[in-house]
Amino acid sequence: MKDLESLSATQAIKALSKREIKATDLLLSCLDRIGQKESVVKAWASLGKENALSRAKQLDKGAFQGLLHGLPIGVKDLYDTYDLPTSYGSPIYANHYPVADAVAVALLRQSGAIILGKTVTTEFATFKSGLTTNPHNPKHTPGGSSSGSASAVADFMVPLATGSQTAGSIIRPASFCGVVGFKPSHGKVSIAGIKSLSVTLDTMGCFGRTVEDVGLGVAAMSGDHRLAKIEVLHNKPRIAICKTSSWPFAQKETATALAVARHAAERVAKGTVIDQKLPKTCDGLTQAQTRIMISEMSRSLTFERVHYAKKLSPQLLKQLSEGAEISYEQYAKDLSLADKSRAAMEDLFNNEVDILIAPSANGEAPLTKDGTGDPLFSRAWTLLGLPCININVGTGPNGLPVGVQLIAGPGKDHFLLSAARAFTLALPDPTLRDQA
Amino acid sequence: MKDLESLSATQAIKALSKREIKATDLLLSCLDRIGQKESVVKAWASLGKENALSRAKQLDKGAFQGLLHGLPIGVKDLYDTYDLPTSYGSPIYANHYPVADAVAVALLRQSGAIILGKTVTTEFATFKSGLTTNPHNPKHTPGGSSSGSASAVADFMVPLATGSQTAGSIIRPASFCGVVGFKPSHGKVSIAGIKSLSVTLDTMGCFGRTVEDVGLGVAAMSGDHRLAKIEVLHNKPRIAICKTSSWPFAQKETATALAVARHAAERVAKGTVIDQKLPKTCDGLTQAQTRIMISEMSRSLTFERVHYAKKLSPQLLKQLSEGAEISYEQYAKDLSLADKSRAAMEDLFNNEVDILIAPSANGEAPLTKDGTGDPLFSRAWTLLGLPCININVGTGPNGLPVGVQLIAGPGKDHFLLSAARAFTLALPDPTLRDQA
Question: Which of B51, B53, B63, B217 is deepest in the core (most CB within 10 A)?
Answer without folding.
Answer: B217
